[in-house]
Amino acid sequence: MPLSQSARHRLSVAYIVLLVAAAAATGCGGIGTSTNRLREAQESFNQAAAAENSLRFDDQLQEGPVQGQLASNTAIQNGYASALLSLGKIEQQDVERLKSDKLWGNVLALKALTQWKLGLLDQARQTAAEAQQAGAEQLLPRDQALLMALPGLIKVDEAFTTLQRVPADPSAAQRATALQNVQLLVSDAVTAIDKGRVAAGATHPVQVYLIQAELAAYRNLQFAQQTLGEGDDRALPAAKRADAQRLLKEFKCQTEKLKAPDTIVGYWTGKLTLTPEPGPC
Questions:
Q1: Residue 7 and residue 133: Cα distance in Å, rounded?
Q2: CA-CA distance, 56 to 53, in Å (whole number)?
């Protein structure tokens, strides 16, 4: 079937759930007025992420004029660019203080996430590698988890982009190639994100973000199977379906511990048309 505009819209809404948790995951403590660039960058990043989340989830805005959405997107990108600019203004003397305070890893984690959000993927990978080389003493479990998961987060983006680029009426060869690419990207994404989840520890709040990243990957795969493959509507292969249901159960348990709204679990069960795996948490 052709990839309609409405179908593309549904996919983008399903994907963007990742943002608010990413913003929350990059918070940092106070470091003094002489090295306030990190705080400025964090605030810019959080504001941009919150605005992006609102853009994706506000139904009224989604149905509003395209011009307004384009303006909002520009403001969001400017916010991320402002965060990166603030990080770039950290002076060498401040770097040494941040290292002494064991916050340098936080700087690099925020920088890598900001580069990712700006589409500077090679730079994001390089920054993530630099952060890993800074040593475990510089990385909080949250930052370590995000940096290890970042290659997977990028691949979720790449799977999403692959689907966006499929022509409206693709040939059989284009369908097969795109489906295979998405399948490989999703497999690699889940593997990388799982490494981040292991690094964080089972009870760390960042699990809520990383589980959603994996659910977004599975939603992209589901959409690919639906529109490019021969499966039933919204079908996932049996093994992937079981994995997604297990993740939904984990997500439900994690959100209950954090006393998060039930609506976020309902969002994912609705998008995937799946119920969580049965059984107690």
A1: 42
A2: 5
Domain residue spans of the chain: 5-272
Cβ within 8 Å of residue 266, ≥6 positions away: none
Q: Is the dihedral of CA 15, 143, 281, 236 positive or negative?
A: positive
Q: What is the pLDDT of residues 41-81, one digit of tens each?
A: 988 988 888 887 777 655 433 434 444 455 568 888 999 99
Query: What 3-state DSSP class applies to 169?
Result: coil
Q: What share of residues in the chain are helix, strand, coil (percent, to 5)? A: 75, 0, 25
Is pTM beyond 0.70? Reply is: yes
Distance CA 1, CA 228 (A): 8
CA gyration radius for the chain?
Answer: 19
Q: pLDDT by residue (tens digit) across 217-274? A: 999 999 999 888 866 655 788 899 999 999 999 999 998 988 877 788 888 898 899 9
DSSP 34: G
